[in-house]
Amino acid sequence: MADPAALSAPRLSDLGLSQDRPLVIVDVDEVLGLFMQGFGAFLAARGYEFRVDRFALFQNIYRPGAAEHLPIDEGKQLFDDFFRTSCGEIEPTPGAVEALTRLGRRAEILILSNAPANAEALRADWLRRHGLPHPLILNTGPKGPVTAAIASQTPNPAAFVDDLLPNLDSVAEHAPWVATFQHVADERLRPLAPSSDKHPRIDDWAELADAIERAISA
């Protein structure tokens, strides 16, 4: 049976991307944009505390002075509200725009973000406003199947950048020919984020762009 992701994945040509150049697939939150910083500001404006003391999301949301984090279902509702109303207010990761501009001179750029469907317009507008007018695909779940379906459309090298090991591992499993890189944007998260020898971890975008260029030039 065909993989559902392969059946639903858009064609590169329909996205305005060429099959004749290398492909770079990039995540948004904690890669191109400072999600934790923006989500924290959103929570503070609503009277909550966001304590970045573990590599987690919903377990870091507290009522002021509370010892226990907010119930997970309440945290998920706040998360959905953030993407519905405020995900266009995050700041770009330092160096990310310059790095993608540089990479775009020799490669096609595709943005692959795990975000709710109602965030698409805000997220696409955010990309355009910050000089990243690249095609955007919203995904749910592991990113390996959709990455494989898209990267298999070109004979050229491809690279994938994400902050989360499950997504990187998924791409390595489903599209082992794609070079994978980990980037964690928030300086508070960097010492907390798990890494793997399977995926080079490069938290500086200038250095990351160098590594991606080498990978797609091989």
Structure description:
The structure is a single chain. This protein is α/β, with parallel strands linked by helices and 218 residues long. The protein has 8 helices and 7 strands, in the order H-E-H-E-E-H-H-E-H-E-H-E-H-E-H. It has helices at residues 4-8, 35-45, 72-85, 96-103, 120-129, 144-151, 165-174, 205-217, and strands at residues 23-26, 49-50, 61-62, 108-114, 136-139, 158-162, 179-182. The strands form 2 sheets. It has a 5-stranded parallel beta sheet, sandwiched between helices. Strands 2-3 form a two-stranded antiparallel ribbon. Strand 4, helix 5 (120-129) and strand 5 (136-139) form a beta-alpha-beta unit. Helix 4 packs parallel to helix 8 (205-217) and helix 6 (144-151) crosses helix 7. The longest helix has 14 residues, at 72-85. The protein starts with a helix and ends with a helix. The mean pLDDT is 95.
In short:
With 218 residues, the chain is an alpha/beta fold.
